[in-house]
Fold this sequence. Notes:
Layout: E1 5-10, H1 16-32, E2 35-39, E3 59-62, H2 67-75, E4 80-82, E5 94-96, H3 98-110, E6 116-120, H4 126-141, E7 145-148, H5 165-177, E8 182-186, H6 189-202, E9 210-215, H7 219-224, E10 230-233, H8 236-251, E11 261-263, E12 267-269, H9 282-294, H10 301-308, H11 312-323, H12 327-345, H13 350-356, H14 362-373, H15 377-384
Helix pairs in contact: 1-8, 3-4, 5-6, 9-10, 12-15, 13-14
Amino acid sequence: MKRKKNVLLIVExxxxxxxxxxxxxxxxxxxxxxxxxxxxxxxLLESTPTWLQNWKGDGIxxxxxxxxxxxxxxxxxxxxxxxxxxxxQIVPEIRSDExxxxxxxxxHFVQSGFADFGFFAIGNAWWSQLRLEAWTREVQKxxxxxxxxxxxxxxxxxxxxxxEPKFDTRMQRWLRYLPKPIAVWAVxxxxxxxxxxxxxxxxxxxxxxxxxxxxTNDTLLCNILTPPLSSVDLNGFQIGYAAAERLSRKMNxxxxxxxxxxxxxxxxxxxxSTDVVALPDKEIIIAIRFLRENAARNISVDQIxxxxxxxxxxxxxxxxQKLGRSVEKEIMRTRMDRAKRLLRExxxxxxxxxxxxxxxxxxxFVQAFRRECGMTPHQYRQQIQSVIIND
Length: 391
């Protein structure tokens, strides 16, 4: 019998993103069944385990910003895949495609008509700076107005800057003076929670005045907040799977692509914190709200126009002027967003999802999804969930 390879995982279990990575790695292990894995419950910033320098094995997947841990790992002279790094001496071999992350963020807000965009971060961690640079480029493409929290990009270059009491006052001052309405992207869900609390303290409505979007999509945290927090899913599952595949190739002596390997995000998971339309056109706001509330009922353009109190031709013309797309495109986009959420978060059969998203038949739903998303609903579900669900 062929010996299983002994693999060490130094990946945090304390954060949703780390657990997503582990799910992706686990899926690869289930498919190949040739690893024996050692993993411990740990936090992201923990120091070098005392036993690590004497560990014997065949390969390691690590997610650490600690130079001390990285030095110990390299001394072992064992095939290694690093997923984090400090942006200087240590760099990640596989990471999120920050350009695609920023594009999904800005597109999400542009679709709701925002012209002012805020960026919320503290410190100048390398991953935060990458997001800021990518976000700035995307906002500029849309001719949007940029508003960056003054603490972003300042301070010592540490991986996870620590929140200080003085930031509360600065955040609240920043929130008061931001133009309204505005769409703000926080580089982590933890900072998005700080923003929600800051808005509550100074009496700013979310999402009415400030729409807030987090990052990493910690489902438990996002759903328990008031209002529930929209967030970007960075596709930790796929990053973890790709890391396991890369380590397998390294352990087999194969050549691997030059790092970094960039993984696109799943996209924005929309919840109530960004459920707003930022347009100075009352009829179009009414139309969009009616559309979003009733898209699953297979509504027509005429019904939307009637709800807004304007003619069909006026509705179509103003939709194109304000949002740059037709009413039909907005109906389809809304249905696709709902379908993706049901595919991600439920085990409903495809026929049930088709019915819940306004499609007359399952075949029509599959064809429309393939046309709009470049893959079938089943392929989408397989890509983002840790188990294969047979519909």
